[in-house]
């Protein structure tokens, strides 16, 4: 089984202090065959944080690129250098500028906040119409998919993490048609999705997306799939990748995509 961790944050992300080399060693010790760093590059112009908080800083792209290329040249391990680009819908020029600025290996396209709204992790869902929040989310995710400036679309339906964390519920199947519309665009464009493991608890089976939606992607003709811990520290990096790879197999995939220079090749799982 070929194991990849293609969603890894390091000290270049505002929510991580992890040393990249220690993360590489952690991944190796867990039997990960290939790792790609995907530090945050949230591109929106409006702050998505609470009034008492600083806005998320913009990624120091040059510094990140130089550090990672130097590490790759000197550490004795091959790994990929990517970015997680957030909110292309809200700052397209900025997003595309970053994507075109360096020869990245891999780009995750993500949506972490609706336009002029809080990051989904910071919303108090008890004070929101949750279904409306999700309708708006899927509309903007559809627009994100259409922009097509990424390798894989990140953590489909990610706001549900935070709804559930707050002890609230949502019947996600109400959005199956919306999900299918997003996935159809991805398939048409020859792009992929990721299985994201942040907050995953084996007894809950709460990978994003879960088996049902990975199968939906497969049934719609999807071929490109990657797996990522979304790890922000050495403990999380490389964790549960076997579980996710087994799930992807169960959904009918025989390969995961390996990326370099934005090009996928396929590795048997
Ligand atoms: Zn993300
Ligand atoms: Zn992430």
Strand order of the largest sheet: 1-2-3-4-5-6-7
Our count of domains comes out at: 1
Amino- and carboxy-terminal Cα gap: 4 Å
Into which percentage range does the β-strand content fall? 15-25%
Proportion of residues in helical segments: 25-40%
- Radius of gyration, CA atoms, in whole angstroms: 17 Å
Describe the global form: globular
- Ligands bound to this protein structure: zinc ion
Helix/strand structural class: alpha/beta
Please sum up the structure shown:
With about 270 residues, the protein is an alpha/beta fold.
Describe the structure.
With 269 residues, this protein is α/β, with parallel strands linked by helices. It has a single domain (4-268), classed as TIM Barrel, CATH 3.20.20.140. 33% of the residues lie in helices and 19% in strands. The chain has 8 helices and 9 strands. It has helices at 20-29, 61-74, 92-101, 130-147, 160-165, 176-188, 211-219, 241-250; strands spanning 4-8, 34-42, 80-86, 106-110, 152-153, 192-196, 224-228, 255-260, 263-268. It has a 7-stranded parallel beta sheet with strand order 1-2-3-4-5-6-7. Strands 8-9 form a two-stranded antiparallel ribbon. Helix 2 (61-74) links the parallel strand 2 and strand 3. Helix 4 packs parallel to helix 6 (176-188). The longest helix has 18 residues, at 130-147. The protein is globular. The termini are close together. The model has no long low-confidence stretch (mean pLDDT 96).
């Amino acid at each position: 089984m070929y194991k990849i961790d293609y969603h890894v944050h390091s000290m270049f992300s505002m929510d991580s202090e992890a040393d990249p080399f220690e993360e590489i060693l952690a991944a190796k010790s867990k039997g990960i065959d290939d790792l790609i760093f995907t530090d945050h590059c949230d591109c929106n112009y409006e702050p998505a944080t609470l009034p008492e908080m600083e806005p998320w800083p913009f990624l120091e792209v040059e510094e990140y690129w130089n550090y990672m290329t130097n590490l790759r040249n000197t550490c004795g391990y091959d790994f990929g250098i990517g970015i997680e680009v957030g909110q292309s819908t809200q700052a397209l020029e900025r997003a595309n500028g970053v994507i075109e600025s360096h020869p990245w290996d891999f780009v995750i396209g993500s949506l972490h906040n609706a336009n002029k709204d809080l990051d989904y992790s910071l919303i108090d869902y008890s004070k929101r119409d949750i279904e409306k929040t999700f309708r708006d989310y899927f509309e903007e995710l559809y627009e994100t998919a259409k922009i097509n400036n990424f390798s894989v679309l990140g953590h489909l339906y990610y706001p549900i993490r935070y709804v559930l964390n707050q002890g609230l519920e949502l019947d996600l199947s109400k959005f199956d048609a919306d999900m299918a519309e997003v996935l159809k665009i991805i398939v048409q464009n020859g792009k992929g999705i990721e299985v994201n493991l942040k907050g995953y608890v084996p007894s809950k089976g709460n990978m994003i997306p879960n088996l049902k939606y990975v199968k939906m992607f497969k049934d719609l003709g999807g071929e490109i799939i990657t797996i990522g811990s979304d790890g922000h520290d050495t403990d999380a990096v490389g964790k549960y990748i076997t579980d996710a790879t087994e799930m992807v197999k169960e959904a009918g995939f025989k390969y995961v995509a390996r990326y370099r220079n934005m090009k996928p090749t396929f590795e048997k799982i």
